[in-house]
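Design review, sub-item: ligand-bound model
Attendees: FS, YL, KQ
YL presented the inputs for the iron/sulfur cluster complex:
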Amino acid sequence: MSKTKTELQAEIRRLAREKNAVIMAHYYVSGDIQDIADFIGDSLALAQQAARTDADIIVLCGVHFMGETAAILCPDKKVLVPDVNATCSLAESCPADEFARFVAEHPDHTVISYVNTTAATKAVTDVVVTSSNARQIVESLPEDTPIIFGPDQNLGAYINSITGRKMLLWNGACHVHARFSVEKIIALKAEHPQAKVLVHPECEGPVVKLADKVGSTAALLKFAIADESTVFIVATESGILHEMQKSCPQKTFIPAPPDDSTCACNECEYMKMVTMEKLYRCLRDEQPVVTVDKDVAAKAIKPIERMLEISARLGL
Ligand code: 13P
Ligand code: SF4
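KQ shared the predicted structure:
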C-alpha cells in the first residue's frame, strides 16, 4: 500500500536523521520538497553548502548538474539525487566535445562556464560562475582579458551589457527562461501598474529590459522581501513563488506568463521530476548515486573551487 504524504514526510525525516543525511533543495523544486529540505537555496548557495557540510550523505533535490557539482566537491560523501534523469536543457545545450573545440579555437581566452553545465564541460573551463556571482567574477578579471562565456547566451549578453565586456558567447539557453512573453508582461504591468517586475538573467534581452530587478533566484527573493512594493511580477521558474509567498505572506506574487498559455512553460519539468515518493525511495535505498569520472572530476573541481574562492573573497 502506498504511503500518505504525512507518512512519507515522517519517513524521510527519520531516514535523514538515522543516516546523517542532509537534504538540499533548489528553489525551483516543488513546494513540498522545499518544505522538507534542511537547506534551500540558489545554485551558488547549494554548492557552498555542499562544500561545507559534515553530513555523510547529501541528497540533492534539483537537477543532475547540481548533484554532480556536490559529488565533485565532496568525493568522500555519498551524493544522491531523487531522479537521475532530471537533466537541464541549458546544460544539454553545451555538449562538452563541441565546447572543447570552441575553446581550442580560442586558445588565448579565459573560459567562464555557468554552473548549469555537465562535469565534462566544467573540465574544459577556467572558472565557473552562477547567476549570483557572474558579474563580480567577470569584473575580477583584468579588463582586457579575452573571455569565452558559456553556455547561456542570455546571461552572457546581460553581463556584457552591464560590464561593457565583449565576451564571446556560446549560443545555449534555458527553454523555460527563453519562453516568457514581453507582450504578456507589459499587459500584466498595465493591470497592476504598482507591480515591480523581477527577472532572472537567463531570460531574453527584451524581457530583461522590463525588469525593476534582475538577479539570481536568491537575489530576486531578497529584493522581494526588502522592497516596499506589495505586488511583484516574477519572470523565472515558478517554484520560487513558494518561498516568496512564505517569506512575504502579505505580498502578491504573479508568475510572468510564458508565450504559449496552453502549457505551464514557466515550470521546469526537470525540477518537477523530484517528488516526495522519489525522495523517500532515494534515501531508503541510497540510490541513485551521482558518480563523476575521476579524471573529469579532477579537472572540473579546479574551476568550481576557483568560483568558491573568489566568491568567499568578495563576500558573496
Ligand atoms: P540560480 O539558482 O543561480 O538562480 O539559477 C537558476 C537556475 O537555472 C537553476 O537551474
Ligand atoms: Fe535548467 Fe532551465 Fe530547468 Fe534551470 S530552469 S534547471 S536552467 S532547464
